[in-house]
Structures are given as structure tokens and as C-alpha cells.
Write a structure and sequence with these properties.
Blueprint: H1 11-41, E1 48-53, E2 56-60, E3 65-66, E4 80-81, E5 86-89, H2 93-126, H3 131-178, H4 184-224, H5 232-259, E6 262-264, E7 269-274, E8 281-282, E9 287-293, E10 298-304, E11 316-321, E12 329-336, E13 341-342, E14 356-362, E15 375-379
Length: 380
């Protein structure tokens, strides 16, 4: 009996049959795997916006004035600065002029005190044993010492500004001399000028201490005298006391303004914005530079106001840097805000559309590869 062998099927035909039979399921599985991979590469639905919290300061000018060049090189974006470092300075020429006016007014008041003292001496010659006139004379002396204190303080404030300028000039010349752009002789002259100003300042500060001591002694002697029945002394001294009080208030204001001439870094960090340059005129409250702390503190996330999730302190959360990948870090809820706040523009789905949410502060996971201000995905 003759046996028939099956006709062999060509490999090409077998492949066509396999594709027809298994092609659709295989394509479906591959499509699902591709979707899962793309999903993991994209920001996941349900994740909340967050970022590594870093303290920022918008350092503004406390007073109106013109920014002057600093002795060191001009600040640049991303410069790293240390706590207390001078970032900007306001020109002090207007303040110097106001101090000069105040000292002139003080001299006028001192002349009035001298005239009052002369009248007291004339009256005293008629009755040297009159205790009221003695008290009147001592009261006038007290007012004279008070005006001396104001004058000394004005000189001290003026010398402090002169010392600051001398230090800046010396630092600038030293920098130029190190680069060969200035002679050592010019630097030496600047050093001598700075030393002279510092010597004058120390002398004035010592004189101020001595004048205050004399004022306390005079006030104590005046308090030991019995006040007379007639209010003659108060009537005589009232105009002087009022004018001295005005001078004292003006001096306190100028002293505060002198401290406001400098803008210094409240902490170490990085310059992330420069709003004004030397030579520009600024008003009180105008931002000059923005400083961002280099220290990572914690993580902050925002829960949309209509989101029902309300985590509690101590609850765990998963934190991932953006773009999201499979790795995540465990964080703990530290604090939940009591009110709904406006989200920062960079955390909104559309920066032009305001969004509100409840801020949540979380612990900073150890080993989290994120820099201060970097966006995160947070899942509770």
C-alpha cells in the first residue's frame, strides 16, 4: 500500500499563520506594557504638587536713596553669600546733610541755654542765698548737658558713616592693588585715613560716655534740691526742654536711618534675583535682591480645596522628584495648614489661573535627590 507524505508547509506560510493566530494578543500585551511604561514616566494622576521648602528673602530697601557701588565686585546672579555679608548700600550724603542741619540747630539751642544761664547769674547776684535760683541754675545746666549729649551723638553718627566709607575705600583700593591696578602708596594713604577716622570715633565715643556721666550727676543733684513753691523753674526750662526733646527725636530717627543704609544677608544662601543695580534710585520698600537659603528644611505639598483628603500629623506619604520615576522616599506629615492658601504660580496646572489649596508640611526624606525649590510629587 502506498503511503502519502504530507506536503511540507513553507516557513513563510507558517509565519503568516502564527501572526494571524497570535499577532493580536501579542500586540495587545505589548501595547499595555508600553502604556504602563509611559504612565510611569508621566506625572501620575492623583499625585499632589509639592516642593522642597527653602527659605527665601526679598530684601528691600528700608529707605529712599541711591544705591552705591560696593568695595568688592558687583553681585551677580547665583553668587553664594554668607550671613551678614553686605549686599547693597544706600548713599549717605543726604543723611550727612541732615546731621549737619541738626548740629546747627543744636548750636542755636545751646546759645539760648547760654543766654538763660546769663540771666540766671544776673538774678542770682541780687540774692546769692536764694535756693530757687540755685535750682534754676542747676536746671539750666542739666539742659545744657542734654544738648551736649545730642551733639556728641550726632558727631558719633557722622563719624560712623565716615568710618564705613573709609573701610569701603580701603577694601576697594586693596582689591585694585592686588590686581596691580593701584599703587601700594594709595592703599597706605587709605589705611591711614581709616585709622584716623577710627581714632576720632573712639575719642568722641569716650567723650559721649563722659558727658552722659556728668548729666546723670547733675540730674541727681537737681533731684536732691527741694522744689520751690513757685513754678518759676518749669516756666524757664519748658521751651528748652521742648526743643531738646525735638532734637533727641530727630537724632533717634537719623540714627535708625543710618542703620538702614546697609542691606545685609540674613542668612547664608544664593542670590536668585537682582532687582536693582548700583546707581539706581530706590524707594522705601523696593526689592533689591532675592536670597534663597541653601539649606533644605522640609517638604511642602498643597491639597486642592475640593480634595476630600485630609492627612493628619504623623501620617506617612510617598515623595518622588519630577519627572516621576519608580523610586520614592518615605516622608511624615509634620503639620497641616489651618486655612486655604493661594498656590504658587509654578505649582499650578495653569500659571495664569489662580488655584487654592491647604498647605501640608512633611519631613525631608533622607537621601532625597532634590534641590531647594525643586518640584515633587506627593502621595498620601
Amino acid at each position: 500500500m502506498t503511503t502519502h507524505r504530507p506536503i511540507p508547509v513553507p516557513a513563510r506560510r507558517r509565519l503568516q499563520r502564527a501572526l494571524q493566530q497570535y499577532g493580536t494578543p501579542v500586540a495587545l500585551v505589548l501595547g499595555i506594557l508600553a502604556c504602563v511604561w509611559l504612565w510611569n514616566q508621566h506625572e501620575p494622576v492623583g499625585g499632589l504638587p509639592g516642593e522642597v521648602l527653602a527659605e527665601r528673602w526679598e530684601l528691600a530697601s528700608p529707605i529712599e536713596g541711591r544705591l552705591v557701588e560696593l568695595p568688592a565686585s558687583r553681585l551677580a546672579l547665583l553668587d553664594v553669600v554668607q550671613e551678614g555679608q553686605l549686599l547693597a548700600r544706600i548713599d549717605d550724603r543726604h543723611l550727612q546733610a541732615e546731621l549737619a542741619v541738626l548740629r546747627a540747630e543744636v548750636e542755636v539751642t545751646r546759645a539760648e541755654i547760654v543766654a538763660t544761664t546769663a540771666r540766671s547769674r544776673i538774678d542770682r547776684e541780687s540774692d546769692l542765698l536764694d535756693q530757687a535760683l540755685t535750682r534754676q541754675r542747676l536746671g539750666v545746666d542739666v539742659q545744657g548737658l542734654r544738648i551736649d549729649v545730642i551733639d556728641r551723638r550726632a558727631q558719633v553718627e557722622s563719624l560712623r558713616m565716615a568710618r564705613d566709607r573709609a573701610l569701603e575705600q580701603e577694601a576697594r583700593l586693596r582689591d585694585l592693588a592686588e590686581r596691580g591696578a593701584e599703587t601700594p602708596n594709595a592703599l597706605r594713604i587709605a589705611e591711614l585715613e581709616r585709622q584716623q577716622v577710627e581714632t576720632d570715633l573712639r575719642e568722641q565715643e569716650q567723650a559721649l560716655v563722659e558727658t552722659r556721666r556728668e548729666l546723670r550727676q547733675a540730674e541727681r543733684r537737681l533731684g536732691e534740691l527741694e522744689p520751690p513753691d513757685e513754678p518759676d523753674l518749669d516756666d524757664i526750662l519748658a521751651p528748652l526742654q521742648a526743643r531738646i526733646s525735638v532734637h533727641m527725636a530727630e537724632l533717634e530717627l537719623l540714627s535708625q536711618r543710618r542703620e538702614d543704609l546697609e542691606i545685609r544677608a540674613p542668612s547664608s544662601g544664593t542670590i536668585t534675583a537682582i532687582h536693582r543695580q548700583p546707581g539706581e534710585v530706590v524707594s522705601a520698600g523696593d526689592p533689591v535682591v532675592r536670597l534663597t537659603s541653601s539649606q533644605r528644611e522640609s517638604v511642602v505639598a498643597w491639597i486642592p480645596q475640593h480634595d476630600p483628603r485630609r492627612p493628619q500629623p504623623g501620617q506617612n506619604a510617598r515623595v518622588r522628584p519630577l519627572p516621576v520615576h519608580n523610586a520614592s522616599w518615605l516622608a511624615t506629615v509634620l503639620q497641616v495648614g489651618d486655612s486655604v492658601e493661594l498656590l504658587p504660580e509654578h505649582q499650578r496646572s495653569d500659571p495664569g489661573v489662580p488655584e487654592w489649596g491647604v498647605p501640608v508640611r512633611l519631613s525631608l526624606p533622607e537621601g532625597l535627590p532634590a534641590r531647594p525649590g525643586e518640584r515633587l510629587d506627593v502621595r498620601f
